[in-house]
Structures are given as C-alpha cells and as structure tokens.
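Hello, quick one for you while I still have it in my head. Could you read through the record and tell me how the tokens relate to the sequence? No rush at all, and the record is pasted right below.
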Amino acid sequence: MTASNSPERQCKDEMLMDSDRAVLSVSTCAKAIICGEHAVLYGSPAVSIPLSAQRMKLTGRVCRPGEEEQILFGRKAVSPNVCGLIRDAFNLLSLPEGRLRLSGSSDIPIGSGLGSSAALSIATLKLAASVNGRELHPDQLAEMGRNLEARFHGSSSGLDTATVAWENPILFHMGQAPVLLRSACGISGGSVLKFCLINSGVSSSTCAMVQQAKPWFTSPLQGQKRLAAFSGLAAGAAAAMESDDALSLAEIMNQTHCLLSESGVSAQILESMRERILSTGALASKITGAGGGGCLLTLLHPELWQDQLRKIQLLFGNSRVYLA
C-alpha cells in the first residue's frame, strides 16, 4: 500500500479503443478502519487506510446505435439496486443517461467490512464521468459516493468513500475534509506498519450492526464519555501512523477492539480468531468495519512480520488472509 495525496494518482483510468467507441476502465480499492468505526457516526473522528491490493474494476462504453444495454458483474446480470446506482451516478453528475455496455469484477469480499459498496459507488462515478470526458477531484468523488452508498446502508458518515476516493490513509471527521496522513503503511512498503486481514467467512449487515451498537454509543449516562475515548484513540492512531510507531498503534488498536466488543458488535467467532491471531506474536488485531463478522485487521511486528504472517496463513488458509 502506498500513500499519496496527489489527485492524479487516484484516476489511473486506461483508455482503449473499440471501433469508434471509447472503452474505459476504472478501478477502486478496498479500505480498512484503524479506529473509529461506529463512533464516527456520532461525531468522533476515525482513522482508516486504503487496501490497494484488493480492487474493484469497471469497464464500459456507450452503446452503439441499435445496440442493447448490458450490465454485468462477474459475468452475471446485476441487481436492480446496482442498475439504480448507475442511474443515480449520472443524475448526480447532471449527465444524460446514456445506454451502457458495462462489466465489472472485484476481489473485495462483500459484507466483510472492507468497503465493497464504497468501492462500487466510487468506481461507478469515475466511469460515468469518464465516458463523458470528465475527471472528478477526490473530494467530489467522496461526497457523491457517500450519497450513492446510501442505497446500501442508509445514511453513512462518508468515511469509506473518502478513503476509497483518496486512496490514502486519512483522519476523518464527518462533515469535514479528510486529513491525509503521511504514512506508507503496508506489507509491500518501507514502513514498519505491516498489516494483514483475516476473513471470518461470516457476512454481516452494516445497518443491523449500527442499530445494535447505537444504544451503547448514545447512552445518556456513558455515551459522551465513550465517544471521547474513541476521539482520543483516533488522534493517537493518526500520530502513531505518521511517526511509524507500531507499538503505540498496536495498543490503540487493541483498546479499540475491546471498546467495540463492549458495544456489542463482536461475535464469538471473531473473539476466538483474535485469540489465535495474537498467539502468533502479532501486535494487535481488531474488528474493522461494522462487526458481527467480516474481517480482523491485524498489525504485525515490524521485524518478525514474515514469520507471523506465515503462521496466520497456516492457521486460517491463504484464501482467508489478505495483505494490506
């Protein structure tokens, strides 16, 4: 994973030619939340990172005269909800609704807390803009993507779409422009912050998890104190990431997991997996995203990360372990 605050890096859209019609291809990344999931909905800041190795790709062009529209994902017809998302994207951009030949593919698992709906929303906007000769700034993508993502989760904070749009680690506060963090975290980068994710194989509903956690975060007696704790953890996480302080970040991630577990969004399978992950010597492991299932984001030791990663892959299988 590489960090960049250059908008140009975000739109690596290659153009091919198919007869007299331009075929455009756009891609977007997944995301993981370091700290602040759920709390961000109630005014606390959050810290998140892009997962550039996990991607969604859309390829499309405007139909030729007399050609039927076709929208496929993984070679299958998409749901009416996805068709509606495409129409909404054109409307948000004030573009005429042209008929499209579109295909998509993704290695971002659905319902795993890695932002598949945000990736789809941003990719759809990028493609709609591209076929009309436009290029959107990441701030525009993030805000329009937040509106589109409401089709899947209802009202959202905008954290996921901002992370995907910028493809950069961010400190995010709802209603404000994200702060881009100077951190080159990831297995392939030179940073000491080495992350991996382990998929529980259990999908969960973001809406259901939000409702489950809401009483804990909005408690008249403890709610404000809990949100203040998350705010402090997010500020600490941002500082630790920018200074490559793996030990401090690990402590923050573990504290965050304990608070999320207390809020009711963990599950027995996640707690069992986390115990096994930490037995490898990994520094931290936590719920990332809505919880109830999905993935555990794990911070590996900066010097022992290769051995720890091998142990985790042996425990859970390579197909369930994603590199960040």
Residues 7-323 form a domain with the Ribosomal Protein S5; domain 2 fold (CATH 3.30.230.10). Residues 1-20 have pLDDT under 50 and may be disordered.
